[in-house]
């Protein structure tokens, strides 16, 4: 045999048993079958066997199983980003003539997808007020196939009455999907919203499926883009998996390994960032430059009681919340002044995303991005703070200094 062939078909095989704390990075497009019969009979739909790298390796199967456990589901699929997970759910479940309902405070690209590709495919959408269960009830029609939910809402952080919204969807026979990025599977269990019911032997109330931007807390590094879809329904899992195999949206093994490496510290990081965010949110609420601070654990924040209902538990008497909040700047400040404040921050960097080690800030103009009225909010520009893992006093000093520099 020549060298070139030897280097590929080498006789050495490492011993089969190898165990270490971290899962190996299995990189494969090709998966080798021992013989043709095995290739013909191998199962493509579940995790009983390997067929092709796109459809699963030990690395991705392990990550999927751990994420399903994290979120309280039984099936998980990985997608190349959180937004790809949203798109995957839409493409797998909606067809021409269907309608999807999206909360006004949803992650904005969810709405953009509905306005773009979904509209092109003859799928309509309506935007509902997440704080008004009656508004959702009035918008559900026989054409409604799917309702998106988000708790807390993006940027403005309203916490909806998730229990009532899910009960409504169940009563009307409409599928509901939760963007679970904020709760990260830790703040509440999306598949078991009323654990006390389950304790009395009643069936658990939960969403039909969740998507999660693993890009945020599960990655924790600000260096990976990935998403997941989790469900407890065997039937939904089958539909989503078939669609996943047809759309070809897999993830890279190195990225999956990076998320696997970060998962064990997820609860610690989530809690540390929560604690720091609450300290800073409370401090911001005491500063005259901010007319309102939006963080679901603050009693003045819209939907605070709903957050308490779901996220305060005997295990977490102070409740859990993501390390993210927004502040409404007093309306006498111009957008130039608000921009100058963001520019003056030194530790808070200007950038999208959250859940990583570095604190981030982003100014928003809510008037231009909302369809429905936001009467529960003070008027003025909104600044969102995403809290990283820096020392909280340093972060507070950074905000105080930037307020001075920008003369706010
Ligand atoms: C970031 C984010 C997404 C999208 O995740 P990407 O991986 O950046 O595509 C979806 N939903 C929410 C709530 C997010 O914050």
Automatic annotation (TrEMBL):
Signal peptide: none annotated. It holds the Pfam family Cys_Met_Meta_PP. The keyword Lyase applies. GO terms for molecular function: cysteine-S-conjugate beta-lyase activity; pyridoxal phosphate binding. It comes from the Bacteria. The keyword Secreted does not apply. PANTHER family: CYSTATHIONINE BETA-LYASE-RELATED. This is Cystathionine beta-lyase. It comes from Limnohabitans curvus. The lineage of its organism: Bacteria, Pseudomonadati, Pseudomonadota, Betaproteobacteria, Burkholderiales.
